């Protein structure tokens, strides 16, 4: 069947129906409270920083703050907050429903399992992108809010401020896409998602020391390549662990990085679809 | 046809050893016999690891009400989950009106399944539960709204439709699941213990609904471990025990094929003593016992057709016969004969 003859309108309507059901679950669950805490912890940190700077007369250095922002973004936000946030959101897309014994609701509808996977993935992506994207935006605002309007205008519109903000937002979205797809598959393939989460965490941490080909089989390799501000050498050199994490010897070009993440995402979602096609409803086994 | 008008069975299997051979259920006059009009199991087995779900099942189920009967663990739910694709067979082939359960996008346009699972997507009202399900079909909002309202009305749950399912009673949850299964107007309705938790009034209404759906030409597959309930509903039955189909067909027909247990017939008449002495002269009679109230006779015979012919002659000779009714061609008796009394009361 040619692409044009596929029932795209039906699939779009079904995906919208899945989103309607899923978005509520992704955003408003008590079990997901810690995800909000992880996402917005840096905002609180930067707000406190700005408050202290304001009390001290607002004489901070925008260059220093840019580097601090870059370091926290890479060391904490990407590697921990988004990483574990995606574990919480995407692993539960299917596994959470198996534990709640409600997955059959979808399996009893005339929805192709592939469409179900895409719908659920998009709902997770929407939730992750909104939570972490808004956090990135708020972090940026909280970090620089204590500067005078002239300094801010200069940084945003005549320096690299807006460019950096757009890049951080893009990296945040791509991180949700990359980690989201990985943990969607992990939730389907492993009864205990903690084990794959730890394995991926370690894999991502040592990525800089892996051979070139293996480096490319990770999410963080591409994300680091897209971050607009490099981690200052001084920060990395003072701490061996940070040096291990920060190293990115041969970064990919932005086009390759974006394409690489998209390919990874599509491949993993396709793999997940195959898994869901074989899936049976056997709540008793869980 | 015998004297009572019951169809001669297409099948009766006596004991587990006969399980696995193919005998189609008797199709009612309105249904065709092709695979596109039936639910077909061909040599289907399902194992959960080393645990047997069902083994070597061969069935062709026509339209009308078909009951899957057996105690807990006999394989009823497994058969239903297999025909709806919720579980996949270890071996064999299944089609529902010619559609494989591997194609949910086609299957569930024709099939509705009311499962035994008593869990629902969180935070939904009864109406949202049915409406959201219909949106998954790709229906636009007004169509989904109209179908949901109609289904909820059909199960008599209009007043509670906009309340959270979490606050529903067991019976209401059962009915909203039934509404979901019915909402898209399927040709096949699979209902796993649908009468569980319903009060007597709603139970009667629900049974009437099943009958009306069957009259409309639907395949209604019902599982139950309450045997007397099945008697009142079914056009045909599939008796299951420990994962095997032990008998299938119209219940009277199945009963007639169980030859090692004589048919029991209850006759109400004005001269039970005379009747007993006359019938007992026949060599196919096993027993004739006058009822404790003295108003009739319970007979056991190995040849029901001959007995009924004899009874016609007796009726013309001055004994007034008020009623004649088989005493043991109900599902409970048949199940007891085939599987054993212990299993049937589990």
What this model shows, in words?
The complex is a heterodimer of chains A (286) and B (346). Chain A is mainly alpha-helical. Chain A has one domain (60-285). Chain A is 76% helix and 0% strand. In chain A, α7 (161-189) runs parallel beside α13. Chain B is an alpha/beta fold and 346 residues long. Chain B has two domains: 16-256, Rossmann fold (3-Layer(aba) Sandwich); 259-340, Alpha-Beta Plaits. Chain B has a six-stranded mixed β-sheet with strand order 5-6-7-3-8-9, with helices on both faces. A four-stranded antiparallel β-sheet of chain B has the order 11-12-10-13, with helices on one face. In chain B, α3 (126-135) crosses α4 (141-154) and α3 runs parallel beside α5. The longest helix of chain B is centred in the middle third of the chain and has 16 residues, at 200-215. The interface between A and B is medium-sized, with 31 and 30 residues.
Give a quick rundown of the structure.
Chain A is mainly alpha-helical.
SSE map:
The complex is a heterodimer of chains A (286) and B (346).
Chain A: H1 8-27, H2 33-55, H3 62-99, H4 104-107, H5 113-144, H6 149-158, H7 161-189, H8 194-205, H9 212-215, H10 219-226, H11 233-238, H12 240-246, H13 254-278
Helix pairs in contact in A: 1-5, 2-3, 2-5, 3-5, 3-7, 3-8, 5-7, 5-13, 7-10, 7-13, 10-13
Chain B: E1 39-48, E2 51-61, E3 64-69, H1 76-83, E4 91-96, H2 104-110, E5 111-114, H3 126-135, H4 141-154, H5 170-182, E6 188-192, H6 200-215, E7 219-224, H7 227-233, E8 236-241, E9 244-249, H8 251-257, E10 263-269, H9 272-279, E11 285-290, E12 296-301, H10 304-315, E13 321-326, H11 331-339, H12 341-344
Parallel strand pairs in B: 3-7, 3-8, 5-6, 6-7
Antiparallel strand pairs in B: 1-2, 1-4, 8-9, 10-12, 10-13, 11-12
Helix pairs in contact in B: 3-4, 3-5, 4-5
């Amino acid at each position: 069947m040619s692409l044009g003859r596929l029932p795209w309108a039906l699939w779009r309507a079904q995906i919208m129906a899945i989103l309607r059901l899923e978005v509520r679950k992704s955003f408003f669950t008590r079990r997901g409270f810690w995800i909000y805490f992880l996402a917005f912890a840096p905002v609180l940190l930067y707000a406190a920083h700005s408050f202290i700077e304001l009390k001290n007369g607002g004489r901070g250095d925008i260059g220093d703050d840019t580097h601090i922002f870059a370091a926290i973004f890479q060391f904490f936000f990407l590697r921990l907050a988004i990483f574990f946030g995606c574990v919480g959101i995407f692993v539960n897309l299917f596994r959470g429903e198996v534990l709640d014994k409600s997955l059959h609701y979808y399996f009893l509808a005339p929805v192709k399992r592939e469409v179900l996977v895409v719908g659920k993935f998009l709902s997770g992506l929407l939730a992750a992108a909104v939570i972490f994207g808004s956090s990135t935006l708020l972090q940026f605002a909280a970090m620089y809010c204590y500067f005078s309007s002239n300094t801010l205008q200069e940084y945003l519109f005549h320096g690299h401020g807006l460019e950096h903000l757009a890049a951080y937002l893009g990296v945040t979205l791509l991180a949700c896409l990359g980690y989201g797809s990985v943990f969607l598959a992990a939730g389907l393939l492993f009864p205990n998602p903690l084990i794959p989460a730890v394995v991926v965490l370690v894999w991502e941490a040592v990525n800089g020391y892996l051979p070139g080909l293996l480096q490319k089989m990770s999410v963080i390799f591409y994300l680091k390549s897209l971050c607009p501000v490099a981690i200052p050498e001084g920060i990395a050199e003072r701490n061996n662990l940070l040096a291990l994490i920060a190293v990115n010897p041969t970064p990919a070009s932005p086009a390759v990085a974006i394409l690489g993440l998209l390919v990874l995402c599509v491949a993993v979602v396709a793999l997940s679809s195959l898994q869901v096609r074989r899936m049976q409803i056997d709540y008793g086994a869980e | 046809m015998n004297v009572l008008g019951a169809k001669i069975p297409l099948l009766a299997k006596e004991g587990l050893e006969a399980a696995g051979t193919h005998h189609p259920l008797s199709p009612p006059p309105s249904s065709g016999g092709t695979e596109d009009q039936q639910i077909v199991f061909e040599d289907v087995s399902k194992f959960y690891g080393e645990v047997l779900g069902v083994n070597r099942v061969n069935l062709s189920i026509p339209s009308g009400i078909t009951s899957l009967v057996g105690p807990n663990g006999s394989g009823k739910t497994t058969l239903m989950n297999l025909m709806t694709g919720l579980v996949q067979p270890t071996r064999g082939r299944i089609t529902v009106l010619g559609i494989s359960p591997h194609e949910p996008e086609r299957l569930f346009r024709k099939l509705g399944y009311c499962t035994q699972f008593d869990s629902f997507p969180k935070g939904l009202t009864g109406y949202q539960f049915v409406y959201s399900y219909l949106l998954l079909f790709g229906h636009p909002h007004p169509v989904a709204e109209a179908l949901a309202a109609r289904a909820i009305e059909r199960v008599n749950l209009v007043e509670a439709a906009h309340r959270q399912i979490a606050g529903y009673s067991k019976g209401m949850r059962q009915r909203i699941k039934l509404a979901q299964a019915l909402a898209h107007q399927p040709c096949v309705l699979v209902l796993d213990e649908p009468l569980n938790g319903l009060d007597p009034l709603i139970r009667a209404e629900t049974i009437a609904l099943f009958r009306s759906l069957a009259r409309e030409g639907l395949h209604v597959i019902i599982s139950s471990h309450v045997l007397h309930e099945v008697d009142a509903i079914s056009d045909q039955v599939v008796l299951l025990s420990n994962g095997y189909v032990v008998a299938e067909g119209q219940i009277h027909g199945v009963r007639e094929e169980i030859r090692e247990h004589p048919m029991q017939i209850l006759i109400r008449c004005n001269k039970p003593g005379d009747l007993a002495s006359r019938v007992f002269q026949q060599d196919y009679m096993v027993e004739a016992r006058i009822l404790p109230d003295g108003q009739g006779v319970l007979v056991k015979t190995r040849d029901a057709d001959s007995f009924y012919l004899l009874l016609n002659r007796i009726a013309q000779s001055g004994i007034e016969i008020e009623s004649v009714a088989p005493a043991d061609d109900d599902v409970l008796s048949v199940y007891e004969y085939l599987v054993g009394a212990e299993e049937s009361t589990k």
